[in-house]
């Protein structure tokens, strides 16, 4: 059975506000977003607070890593800082995992969601060259180290690092993702709104790895046309996506779904929309 959760919303300044909203809407979990100051490691390490509040409310968590994480940053000091952040995040996830087993679905893994960082590029007169693509061997070596470290840090815990599509995957990123997905500790997040906004360009790549889907970011979106700009993070029903079709895929892959709208009103509207299409 599908399980729906919510993101941490910018209108809410405290964990308690997010939990209350999650409860009121009948959702199962909150995706803690490490781009917010409230959910930096310093705060997340207060695991007893997070655990007790969620336990009382009957919900659990997933975690969204900082979008700036760059696994292959050429600056070793920067790269080490990101790796250390992920190591500590995994440690926190292990402490929060019992909430999922109690209030969620034990057949699902605890999700740590991650973006791929495109890195720096140089704009030439006739082309744009990404430094990671130019230095592909260095880039891939960093991901080999990353996979090995994550496998060690996660160990036997039921935790998956799920790679999310945002504005699509560049070719060198696909190579790195293919390598990561060979490990049982890595999976995919399908953000259906971002996917729609760029014309579903990378759906084929996602579907080639359908067996690795673990997580969905669900929001409506439109594709750019002559009369409109692309838009996403819309309330369900306000865009062009066949939501029911995407939810069927989520259910078939035993993936959980974050209703990734950006406002409380859009989240409320999306929950109401779901009640009409989900049995």
Write a brief structural summary.
By secondary structure, the chain is α/β, with parallel strands linked by helices. Helices cover 44% and strands 20% of the residues. 39% of the residues are buried.
Topology of helices and strands:
Elements: E1 4-7, H1 15-24, E2 29-33, H2 41-44, H3 47-57, E3 60-64, H4 76-103, E4 110-115, E5 121-123, E6 128-130, H5 131-134, H6 136-154, E7 159-164, H7 171-180, E8 186-191, H8 192-197, H9 203-208, E9 213-218, E10 220-222, E11 231-234, H10 243-252, E12 256-259, H11 264-277
Parallel strand pairs: 1-2, 1-12, 2-3, 3-4, 4-7, 7-8, 8-9, 9-12
Antiparallel strand pairs: 5-6, 10-11
Helix pairs in contact: 1-3, 3-4, 4-6, 6-7
Notes on the protein architecture:
Helices cover 44% and strands 20% of the residues. By secondary structure, the chain is of the alpha/beta class. The strands form three sheets. It has an eight-stranded parallel β-barrel, surrounded by five helices. A two-stranded antiparallel ribbon has the order 5-6. α1 packs parallel to α3 and α4 (76-103) runs parallel beside α6 (136-154). The protein starts with a strand and ends with a helix.
- Give average pLDDT, whole number: 96
Q: Share of helix among residues?
A: 40-55%
Low-confidence stretches: none
N-to-C SSE string, H for helix and E for strand: EHEHHEHEEEHHEHEHHEEEHEH
Largest sheet: 8 strands, parallel, barrel
State Rg.
18 Å
